[in-house]
Design goal:
By secondary structure, the chain is α/β, with parallel strands linked by helices. Helix content is about 40%, strand content about 20%.
Length: about 700
């Protein structure tokens, strides 16, 4: 069943196959796992006479009259109107820019409507309701008189034809479906079998069975997601890694030279890392910490533990700007430190580096102790003399496969993965099941939380006035302008226009700089260096600043069109200010229209806590977008939701741990189908399961 092409189903064929492929449906199994986006209870329709303003209803009606006109504002924009009736009353319906409806909305035609009722000029109306035509002799139980599935449709298909297609596939292939979840596991957790679940997720007999089907299929996705993570962690512990010298003069000298005292959070995490690195087992640890919490200092200390034992360390960051920033900061902090009678040697490797071959040779010969760089560190030409420790910064910017490449350049080196996108600890432990988790949940002493304000476009001058006030006191400020791929050229032009207006207008008495993605790297760095050296008062920038320089004197940030940024992105941007002991201000300028955008801005104003921000971001965006589907395999979570089904996710992890402890290679007879399913559903996991 798994590999049978969708084109062999009756009514598809090679031509229609493309429409399904665009929705990720290529096989019969893909179709059966293409779940409804919602359901309509058509066992009880609402009467028109009982409809209330602002509520959503499903009603069965007939067309009394219909017509079409063009908008007086845009002649090409059509408005289709119809008056629909049932035995209790009538309702007006309006559809925008769907001119083809005119041919179907003939008097006497029956259809089902689903939508929100609103009162206009004393009349009930639905705007753009979903609809489905009913044949006058329709007795098809898939469409009326039951709980009916509603799908996101492939092009050229109606809800009716989609239901018939899926019902036909269920009838033909259900006898061939094998349930790969072991019987004892299903019994312990009161789970339906797979055939019952697929039938009742598409065409539920009742809402109770639909919920049971949802539970089973969600558990299945979580369980398959957890198995390789649990197995990787177990197998990693079986392999010998590097046992580092974690206490020594190099580490002590570095700590003593720091101009600040490590926070309790940093000290706690450092102790966890020391314990791992001293062990002969390879470390795989995720370090979560809010923007500015001091993760890089901890990572640098861990690098020094590797170096003082005679091993090399590698520090990989997702962008050239961030790599250069780490290089400059770490090189400065290590200045003056010696090891075995010589200075520490730090190298930088980026994709376009003219000195690449020289750096390759020095790393290979062990002349560089710590190499910092972008994904250029993954290139085949780079070979280490003795790689013992790896830092991967902003791990969500790298794919799973990329993260696995760098450790292969050493003999099972320790790995520290860092992220400034904190998520709730329980969820982190469950989703990053192959990693140990460390958290820095406090900011350095003396940091004052940034005040965040929201102004409309009409009131944006209030934000600019606040920025001018800070500049007049000798501080510095940022103005951030959004740039997105879909309108890159226009956005860059918009940033340039804003820069020109500010320079000639309200900020003409100050020194301004502009940084955007079209500037060459050297030009970007020159502007940023001027800003850092206080040769500029105000920096107008696109989102490349998200992982930019740290300027303690910068106390104000204005974000233009703030609704165009994601919540985590806004929080990352805000982290560029408030780096010193002065009160800082983040001004969000936006006329947000959507509920989601309003929720993001509200969260920013109410909280500066990264963990609370991430919880809200997860709630707003959903798990796939938040975690990055490509990186985490969450693209396969088609029905499960780790935010709303956390207890089920934890239960699935417990069962994965239990099963692997009993049969860590899935070789028992009752687990053979499960193993085949795991590799068939996630081919990349087969190699992961073999990784120590």
């Amino acid at each position: 069943m798994q590999a049978t092409s969708i084109q062999y189903l009756k009514g598809i064929g090679p031509k229609r196959k493309k429409s399904f492929s665009d929705k990720g449906i290529n096989t019969i199994e893909d179709l059966l796992y293409y779940f409804p986006r919602r359901y309509e209870d058509r066992t009880n329709f609402s009467n028109i006479s009982g409809l209330k303003d602002g509520e959503i209803y499903t009603i069965k009606t007939q067309v009394l009259a219909g017509g079409q006109r063009n908008s007086w504002r845009r002649r090409s924009f059509s408005i289709t109107e119809a008056v629909l009736v049932d035995k209790t009353g009538k309702i007006n319906c309006v559809w925008f820019n769907q001119p083809y409806l005119k041919e179907y909305l003939k008097p006497g035609v029956s259809l089902i409507l689903y939508g929100k009722v609103e009162i206009y000029n004393g009349r009930m109306q639905m705007n753009n309701p979903e609809f489905e035509f009913l044949d006058s002799e329709d007795v098809d139980s898939l469409n009326i008189g039951r709980i009916v599935p509603i799908y996101t449709l492939p092009k050229g298909f109606s809800q009716r034809s989609m239901r018939h297609l899926i019902k036909g596939a269920l009838d033909e292939f259900m006898p061939k479906v094998k349930d790969y979840l072991p019987f004892d596991l299903r019994s312990r957790n009161n789970l339906l079998n797979l055939a019952q679940s697929l039938i009742n997720i598409h065409f539920p007999q009742d809402l109770i069975l639909q919920k049971q089907a949802l539970l089973r299929l969600s558990f299945e996705e979580f369980f398959i997601f957890q198995l390789p993570l649990v197995l990787r962690k177990l197998k990693r512990k079986e392999k010998k890694g590097v046992s580092h010298i974690v206490n020594g003069k190099l580490v002590e000298d570095f700590i003593s030279r720091l101009p600040f005292k490590l926070t309790l959070g940093q000290q706690k995490v450092l102790a966890e890392i020391k314990s791992d690195m001293a062990s002969a087992q390879a470390m795989q640890r995720l370090l979560q910490g809010d923007v500015g919490s001091g993760k890089t200092v901890v990572a640098t200390l861990a690098c020094l533990m590797s170096i003082q034992g005679g091993y090399q360390a590698a520090f990989m960051a997702p962008t050239e700007i961030l790599s250069r920033q780490h290089y400059a900061k770490i090189t400065s902090q290590l200045s003056g430190l010696t090891f075995n009678g010589r200075k520490l040697r730090v190298g930088l490797l980026i994709s376009q580096d003219k000195e690449k071959e020289r750096i390759y040779q020095e790393v290979k010969e062990g002349k560089i102790d710590l190499i910092i760089g972008t994904h250029a560190l993954l290139q085949e030409g780079l070979r280490f003399k003795s790689l013992g420790f790896i830092v991967i910064d902003e791990q969500h910017k790298f794919g799973v496969g990329q993260r696995a490449l760098l450790p292969k350049k050493g003999n099972n080196p320790d790995v520290l993965i860092m992220t400034a996108t904190p998520i709730p600890r329980t969820l982190a432990i469950t989703l990053y099941g192959d990693l140990d988790i460390s958290v820095i949940n406090e900011l350095p002493a003396g940091r004052i939380p940034v005040k965040t304000l929201h102004f409309s476009q009409q009131d944006k001058e209030k934000g600019f006035a606040l920025a001018r006030q800070e500049l007049e006191h000798g501080r510095q400020a940022y103005i951030i302008y959004p740039v997105i791929e879909e309108s890159y050229a226009l956005d860059i032009a918009g940033a340039k226009k804003m820069f020109a207006e500010l320079k000639e207008g309200g900020f003409k008495n100050f020194r301004l700089g502009l940084v955007h993605g079209k500037l060459k790297t050297k030009e970007q760095e020159e502007v940023m260096l001027k800003f850092r050296n206080k040769e500029l008062d105000l920096l107008v920038s696109t989102t490349i600043l998200e992982v930019g320089i740290d300027i303690p004197n910068a106390t104000c940030m204005i974000v233009a069109h703030a609704e165009r940024f994601g919540l985590s992105q806004l929080h990352q941007l805000r982290g560029r200010i408030g780096r010193g002991s002065l009160q800082s201000f983040c001004v969000l300028i936006s006329d947000a229209q959507t509920d989601e955008a309003k929720a993001r801005l509200r969260a920013m104003v109410l909280s500066s806590d990264g963990f609370r921000i991430s919880e809200e971001d997860l709630r707003i965006r959903g798990p796939g977008e938040f975690f990055g589907q490509r990186q985490h395999g969450l693209t396969e979570l088609k029905i499960a939701n780790p935010l709303t089904q956390l207890q089920l996710l934890k239960k699935a992890r417990e069962e994965a741990l239990r099963l692997i402890s009993e049969d860590n290679n899935l070789t028992l007879h009752q687990h053979i189908q499960l193993k085949e399913r795991l590799f068939q559903r996630f081919p990349e996991y087969e190699s992961f399961m073999a990784v120590a």
